[in-house]
Amino acid sequence: LHFELRIQGPQPRRDKSACSWDDRPRQHRSGEQFAPPARMHPDSRALVDARAEAEAAIAKSHAADTRLRDAIDILPQGVVFLDAEGRYILWNQQYADIYKGSADLFKVGRRLEETLRIGVERGNYPAAVGREDEWIAERLAHLSNPGQRHEQWLSDGRCILIEEQRTSDGGRIGLRIDITEMKAREASFRLLFDANPVPMFVCGRNDRAILDVNDAAVEHYGYAREQMLAMSLSDIQQCSEGGAFDSLDRQASDHGAGRTWKHRKSDGGLIDVAIYSRALAREDAAAVLIAAIDITERKQAEARVAHMAHHDALTGLPNRVLLRQHMGDKLQRMRRTGAGIATLVIDLDNFKSVNDTLGHPCGDELLQKVAERIRAALREDDVAARLGGDEFAVLVPGAGGPQEVGAFAEGLIGVIGKPYEINGQQVLVGASIGIALAPGDGDDADRLLKNADMALYRAKADGKGAFRFFEAEMDARVQARRRLEVDLRRALANGELQVHYQPVVELATGRISGMEALLRWPHAERGLIPPSEFVPVAEETGLITALGTYVLRRACLDATRWPAHLKLAVNMSPLQFRLGSPFAAVSGALKESGLPPQRLELEITEAVLLEKVDHVITSLHALRALGVGISMDDFGTGYSSLSYLRSFPFDRIKIDRSFVRDLATNRDSQAIVRAILTLGSSLGITITAEGIETEAELAWLRAEGCAEGQGYLFGRAQPQAETLVLLAAESMLHVAA
User: Fold this and answer.
1) pLDDT of residue 337
2) What is the distance, to the nearest Å, from the Cα of residue 560 to the centroid of all Cα atoms in its chain?
3) Where are the beta strands (DSSP E) in 608-673?
4) Coil, strand or helix: which one is 693?
5) Nearest 5 degrees, angle CA 331-CA 337-CA 341?
6) SS3 state of residue 130
């Protein structure tokens, strides 16, 4: 601000107030204003005119002074006028309010230096404590050489910005601005900026020059502070397009976060950073405050999670989800180009036995090696995936005809079937492959995988170690199997399944010693469906546990109506031990029916003992402790029967019907059965022969000392009502005897 005050003529008199002018018109003692006489000497007339002009000048000066005071009084800043000697001329109320600790010293004509010295003595200026003369000298130096801003702290904690300019007559005009709040905000900003653990920059909004950095940025990026302050944002930004900086402008105006950038550290390494920015007011130029949060590890973790979501953790191959995506992409290309696609589903043969005999760690290593061999056999555009367990899939785009695909599948079987070296042992597995060709066998991922899976099922059913192409009749068989599953679920829910009983006979006396419970399904449309058809379906679909529980409960209830000496034999599937809780099912059925545990005998096959042996043995011992008998069914047809006899004390061994058929004339069968009978006698285990159909077979078994038998010779399985009639007739027969 520059004000120039020129006053001509006689100077006005000051009253006692600091800045008031005495502008009252001169009056005669009588109170009347001065008026020239009507008649005057010419010289007197000139004097009167001169006096009038002077008074007019005074009035004009007073009006100018009033306007000046009005002008400076409405300013929000403090304003002061000093003459060339540094004496007070004029000041406004804001100035007096700012320096309220010294306002009583302000007098027209008093030197500023004097008020400063008194103010220092009063302690108004904390920066002067201990260096009073030096501080005053510095302040007067600023006054002598005006033009540069400087700050002044007052004892009440306020900070005043001082700006002074020289006037045309050699005086000074000073401006005082209370910047306490601004300094507080600046201090808060510095605190949040300097001590913030997040790397932060202040950049010019126009030239992107780095104007300031905090310690976290210096440490994280590895540059020296001086080096960073000589750089621009583009020096660390790994982006050549202006779009990234344009987005910064948008972010700064929106006070938000927008993009993820890549920044270059001093060692050349790239990091991913999330940018948060906002506009920042600076004295010199518009700026932007940037917070750069390093999210490199987070993005790497996200990438790992994304990879895990689409890849098999064990083999690193794509999983089913990613395979379907690849299939979708390649099927779209097939529709454009017309090139065929082959989908191969691969299942390892005998992998379960490797897992059971060598352990799961060896099984996992085997799967990894199989995956490596499959991957090595593929072309660049082929895709391999692990579907789960020991099942893999291969997608072959641009496949030729069945002959070419068949040759490829045969090659895969050969590669997979070569011996593996695992923990110093040689391991062998085979592979069966089902193949579906697009577009003939389907033009979407679900149908192709389904049809390839059906072809795989056929390959395994035909003896394993082979490949089969999908054929339309396979789908018909699968649909029939599906209908059987639906009907089985409905039959179980509606109580349509029946439990029949086949007698077990003491061969020496011919008396019935027990009954074996056998499940039967009288279908309304298909008639009696044999267990060989619906039990495998129940095992595949998980219904076997519900079926087993139903048979246990029904058979135990029915057995309570039989003579007390008769035993009840119930078959249990291996899946009941794997998926269910056999102890809970058995104890629940016994408790519900009231049947003594000693009358119940559970028949298991050797396959049960292949399922988590420790778990199964524990369950069998718990059932045995309950009082239930345990019988090994179909003895001699499985694996390692003798080792199982040593691992668990069975109550009964049942000789499989395949050894009893033509027993009277077949010397090999006779030798096997004789050995089993000798083994049972040595171990104290009761032996029961199954499938006795002729008198000759009965005579041979009776002569060799076989304790019990069952088969069509003694009777077929029949419902409870007919069983009760049979038992009543036998009871009367033996009473009569």
Assistant:
1) 81
2) 56
3) 629-635, 652-655
4) coil
5) 40
6) coil
Q: Could you give phi then psi for residue 3, rounded to 5 degrees?
A: -120, 135
Tokens of 628: 């239930």
Cβ neighbours for 1, distance < 8 A, ≥ 6 positions apart = 79, 165, 173, 175
Angle of CA points 595, 530, 561, to nearest 5° = 20
Q: For residues 231 and 221, give the distance between their C-alpha atoms in angstroms, rounded to a whole number.
A: 13
Buried b (16+ CB within 10 A) or exposed e, 431-468: bbbbbbbbeebbeebebbbbbbbbbbbbbbeeeebbbb
Q: How many residues can be counted in the chain? A: 737
Average pLDDT of 253-270?
74
Whether the per-residue pLDDT at 169 is higher than 60: the answer is yes
Residue 439 in contact with residue 340, Cβ under 8 Å? Answer: yes
Q: Is 192 helix (H, G, I), strand (E, B) or coil?
A: helix
**pLDDT at position 641, please?**
56
Cα angle value 648/654/658 (rounded, 5°): 130
Distance, C-alpha 113 to centroid of its chain: 72
- The residue among 375, 372, 349, 374 whose CA lies nearest residue 427 is 349
Give per-residue pLDDT as tens, 578-632: 777 899 999 999 999 999 999 999 998 877 776 556 778 888 899 999 999 999 8
pLDDT tens digit sequence for 691-735:
999 999 999 999 999 999 999 999 999 999 999 999 998 887 766
For residue 707, how many other CB atoms are within 10 A of its CB?
A: 19
User: Is it true that the peptide bond before 439 is cis, omega within 30 degrees of 0?
Assistant: yes
Mean pLDDT for 557-581 is: 90
Q: Which of 291, 281, 285 is nearest to 248 (CA)?
A: 291
Residue 324 has pLDDT above 80, yes or no: yes
646 vs 195: CA distance, rounded Å: 74
Residue appearing with tokens 């005082």: 176
